[in-house]
Amino acid sequence: xxxxxxxxxxxxxxxDAMCAPYEGGVAERFLWRMIGRTKAGELRFTDxxxxxxxxxxxxxxxxxINQDKLAREFSESYKWSxxxxxxxxxxxxxxxxxxxWNQANISVYKDGSFGNGAAMRAPILAMCFMPSSPExxxxxIRSSEITHAHALAIEGALxxxxxxSHALSDMPDSELCRYLIECADSEIFRSKLQLCRQHLxxxxxxxxxxxxxxxxxxxxAKGSCVTAIYLAIRFRDKPxxxxxxxxxxxxxxxxxxAAMAGAIWGASNGAKRLQLEDLPRIEMQNEIQKxxxxxxxxxxxDKNK
Length: 305
Ligand code: R7I
Ligand code: MG
Ligand code: MG
Prior knowledge:
Layout: H1 2-19, H2 26-35, H3 47-62, H4 67-77, H5 86-96, H6 101-104, H7 134-145, H8 151-168, H9 173-183, H10 187-201, H11 208-215, H12 225-234, H13 240-250, H14 254-269, H15 285-303
Helix pairs in contact: 1-14, 1-15, 3-4, 3-15, 4-5, 7-8, 8-12, 8-14, 9-10, 10-12, 11-13, 12-14, 13-14
The structure holds inosine diphosphate ribose (R7I) and magnesium ion (2 copies).
């Protein structure tokens, strides 16, 4: 199980760092070419991994998702050069200046953001709480709403977290799809998940343009979470690099789709199947690995209580 936790966190971070250079349009890609490596030549990660680290550190320190403390952690880590979403960046700067998070999160969009910024970091909650515990769902909601108060952003985060949790416990694909469809609250997520189940059952080899049309490749939760879930399951028995190559070709919000899909893929397959020796190194790789090991140890302790 420890290897699956490491696979999940590294899958998220590697997906993020390796697909970030392919995100967005020409300007974003050019910028990332300039700032996408550390001085030591390691690949830099973006907001997806940074916020995942913030949740993990906050949980390991406090033993819970304490929203005030996590809001501070998120806002203190904020740096423009991590490529945060435009709304999220504004919210985090307001929190840093002292605005309470539950005012900041509705200050940019009046119902809160429906971006995928809550879902991209949600895999960590599957490594904090037992899947059947009420704390799990609550943890996803609490960690999401600090920056993403919109119901669709939270729904996307829950679906990604459930997918990771089931990948950690090796639930068969058909059961996972059924479970996710049952959990979906909105018509848009339900219909995309039904389509996802259909394509997986029929083993349709959708081309990248068809995936984009069916599930989306943008920055909204409804236009990216099912994409990531579909691709993670479709590529689960294939090499990690095949998954990432497909996402690079898909374009759009590549870092985030790869972070979510990478976390699910890594939770299924474990770190050994990532074949780290063949992949570029990313910044803080050892620290990410150590944090995954700590999360695993903490969850086992809880189990034995
Ligand atoms: O969701 P978020 O934190 O980050 C999304 C992406 C990820 O790919 C990151 O890697 C980073 O690159 O950014 O950022 P937000 O700014 O909250 O939401 C993302 C986008 O969704 C916004 O820039 C808007 O285009 C759109 N969006 C909305 N548009 C209209 N009305 C989100 N909420 C709304 C809304 O209420
Ligand atoms: Mg990002
Ligand atoms: Mg992104």
